[in-house]
Amino acid sequence: MGKVCIGLRGWRFDEEAVFDREGAFRPMDEMPEETSTRLSRLTALVNRPCDACWLIHGDEEVERCNPAAVVYGEPMAEVLLCDDHEPDFVYWFREAGGSEYRGTDDVEDAFHEWFADGGRAPGGYAGLSHVDTDPDELPDPEAVLEAAGDARERPADGRIEVEDANSDTGAADPEAEPTEADAEDVEDLDLSREYPR
Ligand SMILES: [Zn+2]
After folding, report:
1. Is residue 196 part of a domain?
2. What are the Cα distances from residue 149, in Å, to 33, 41, 153, 175?
3. 68 C-alpha to center of ligand 1: Å?
4. 7 half-sphere exposure, CB direction, 13 A CA radius
5. Band of the pLDDT at 34, cuts 50, 70, 90?
6. Largest CA distance in the chain
7. When you count CB atoms within 10 A of the terminal residue's CB, does the N or C end of the chain come out lower?
């Protein structure tokens, strides 16, 4: 079964759990709960700035922050990073004690604290060798909101919690093809938990 990133690199989904045979998003209530939770969370994350940029520039200069390109961590405790700052997170996770927060809700706060204290990867630290995937070429998670549209009109069904349900879905592309990441990359990483190894 293929794995696919949606919107941002990082979290990976079973293609079959997310897309139907035509490559369109399945209705959210047909997905496993963990999948729909992550996917709906992604719709709220795709347009956010990089956490590290934000720690540097703050809300006052949020326009200087790079948009997030990759997401690590757990839903509601994510670390969002741009390409420039991903090596800092990978270094922290691998070399500076970050891995003890694997799978916990503290990963975000712990990384922020380290970074705000001046924690950085050493110059030239390579980090992960990603396939050069442009997030713009990944399936747009906001397209799932269209598929979830029917479900949202049934408020009695508390299982569907779509964040930012009122956000603009006009750009959603239900035809978006799943983008298969490079198989070599898949083997290099512990992708089951979406953390650097
Ligand atoms: Zn950044």
Report:
1. no
2. 17, 16, 7, 16
3. 7
4. 26
5. very high
6. 53
7. N
Reported as a single tens digit per residue, the pLDDT across 14-31 is: 999 999 999 899 999 999
Model confidence pLDDT, tens digit, residues 126-185: 766 655 566 667 777 777 666 555 444 444 444 444 444 444 444 444 444 444 443 333
In a domain, 197, yes or no: no
Do 122 and 87 form a contact (C-beta atoms < 8 A)?
no
> Which of the 8 DSSP states describes residue 60?
G
Locus of tokens 């747009």: 140
Q: How far is the CA of 119 from the centre of ligand 1 (A)?
A: 14
Q: Which residues surround ligand 1, an ion (CB under 5 A)?
A: 50, 52-53, 66, 82, 85
Distance in angstroms (rounded) separating the CA atoms of residues 172 and 185 = 28
Residue with token string 């070429």:
137
Q: What spacing in Å lies between the alpha carbon of 67 and ligand 1's midpoint?
A: 7
Number of domains in the chain: 1
Q: Is 179 helix (H, G, I), strand (E, B) or coil?
A: coil
The average pLDDT across 122-129 equals 76
> Which residue range forms the structural domain that includes residue 106?
3-188
CA distance 80 to 71: 5
